[in-house]
Amino acid sequence: MAKQAVATRTDLDPIDRLEEKVKLLVGMVSQLRREHAKAAEDNTRLMRELDSMRARLAETEVSGSELTALRDERDLIRSRVAEMLEQLESI
Predict the structure, then answer these.
(1) In which region does residue 87 sit, left (phi positive, over 0), alpha (psi from -120 to 50) or beta (all else)?
(2) pLDDT score of 29
(3) Interval 9-22 mean pLDDT
(4) Model confidence, pTM
């Protein structure tokens, strides 16, 4: 009987190791799924931030163009006023 119990226990050792490996694998798969879900959420959040930044950049570029146009207009007006002042001084 004792030999049979030892033999049976020895026969079950590979199954026990397999069971432990399966449990570890299931745990690893669960962890990878959680990490994947978090990465997907981060990716979605970052895409929204990127879209927002692109919109802000476009607004800034438009504002920069408007600012350049206004400066050019100011310089033109300044030069015209200077010419008018010169004409008034010559009178």
Answers:
(1) alpha
(2) 98
(3) 87
(4) 0.56
- Token pair, residue 33, equals 């799924």
Three-class secondary structure assignment of the chain: CHHHHHHHHHHHHHHHHHHHHHHHHHHHHHHHHHHHHHHHHHHHHHHHHHHHHHHHHHHHHHHHHHHHHHHHHHHHHHHHHHHHHHHHHHC
Q: How far apart are CA 19 and CA 27, in angstroms?
A: 12
The Cα angle at residue 59 between residues 44 and 49, in degrees rounded to 5: 15
Whole-number average pLDDT of the chain: 90
